[in-house]
Amino acid sequence: MNGTNLVNSLAGLLILTSLLVIETRRPSRAALLYAVQSSVLVTIFVVLAYLTHSTQLYLWAASSFVTKVVLVPVILFGALRKFDTMVPLPSLMRVAVVVALAAVLVMGCSLIVAPLKLPAAAEFRPALTVSLAHFFLGITCIVTQRNIIKQIFGYCLMENGSHLTLALLANQAPELVEIGISTDAIFAVVIFTVLVRRIQHKLHSLDSDQLMTLKG
Prior knowledge:
Blueprint: H1 3-23, H2 27-52, H3 55-80, H4 92-113, H5 125-144, H6 148-169, H7 175-203
Helix pairs in contact: 1-2, 1-5, 2-3, 2-6, 3-7, 4-5, 5-6, 6-7
């Protein structure tokens, strides 16, 4: 398998790991699966760096390993494992709907990417398709999931998708761009986990519908 096929194949694993993160009941296990997904993303960065001779992408890979594979999962695991029993089991119907939705998103994004003339990512159109679908899958998770913890993971998935898109289209961007993205992700996750703990303490629920009515 050459480097281009490896990148496109690894990108496909991102969708699989996303589905596992979304449908896994235990937040602590979802945090570990997110670490696995981020490891795949880091591997893609390394392969892209080798293929494109981009020193910046090697730095992106190192920064992403520290933030996405280590720090963010540790924060999520430590803050959310106490809620492992508070996330309902997914029904088979919902799992089927999520899988079908992911397939539709990939097909739709492939139609968007196909006519585009992108010299920087001409050989990585499948990976670019997956990165866009991954972004929209994260947004869909945020919008459709009632459980607040699942919405946090939706943000993490969305961020990974946008990160891969940027790596494919702007692999010569300065490493400060990567540092900025990673730093934003860490601070966002910290804020989200603090809010979840406060909401659960106040409302004794993680259902976002409980936040729809303002009480004076």
